[in-house]
Specification:
The chain is built from 5 helices and 8 strands, in the order H-E-E-E-E-H-E-H-E-H-E-E-H. By secondary structure, the protein is an alpha+beta fold. The radius of gyration is 21 Å and the shape is globular. It starts with a helix and ends with a helix.
Length: 181
């Protein structure tokens, strides 16, 4: 009887041990699909006048959002981006908003402050670089960006894992990027 009790206790310990989350290993993302596209690098200007390149975020999970200040659906998802960045920036999430046809840097800065946007917002350096980046992503993915907001989920290795046309919620974005954190 005693050997059955000990065997039962060992089995219980094994089952409990397997059910506990292993925190000793970093979180592993799902394997990259064979047709995954490398996110094209680009250089734009941040609102504080600094040059910003996507390659500066190597090793981060990136939500790259093409948007406009004049776009109601874009405005709808801004509060969710703010919440996501607050919650997950320390885990390696970066959010980058590329403004399209939104006016001067001063106009965009005013909008950003009004909406309490806490993530990277980029604009043109001289004239139409944001349109060039839009075309670059359209060519790379094979799908024209002809509606905003359009967002790309980029993994830590710089591959586009998912794209979205139209606004999404905090819950939807989190479910998709969480495996890559």
């Amino acid at each position: 009887m005693r050997k059955y009790f000990i065997a039962g206790m060992i089995l219980f310990a094994v089952i409990v041990g397997c059910a506990q989350k292993d925190t000793s290993q970093p979180h592993k993302a799902s394997p990259r699909p064979a047709n995954a596209v490398k996110a094209p690098d680009f250089t734009l200007m941040s609102l504080d006048g600094m040059v910003f390149s996507l390659s500066d975020l190597k090793g981060k999970v990136v939500l790259l959002n093409f948007w406009g200040t004049w776009c109601p659906p874009c405005r709808r998802e801004i509060p969710d981006f703010v919440k996501l960045y607050d919650k997950y920036q320390d885990d390696g999430l970066e959010i980058v908003g590329i403004t399209l046809a939104s006016g001067t840097a001063a106009d965009i800065e005013k909008f950003v402050k009004q909406w309490n946007m806490n993530y990277n917002i980029l604009t043109d350096i001289n004239s139409n670089e944001t349109q060039e980046v839009t075309a670059l992503y359209s060519r790379a993915t094979g799908y024209p960006i002809n509606g905003i907001p359009t967002t790309f989920l980029i993994d830590r290795d710089g591959y586009i894992r998912k794209s979205y046309v139209g606004p999404r919620t905090e819950k939807v974005f989190y479910a998709d990027f969480e495996p890559f954190l």
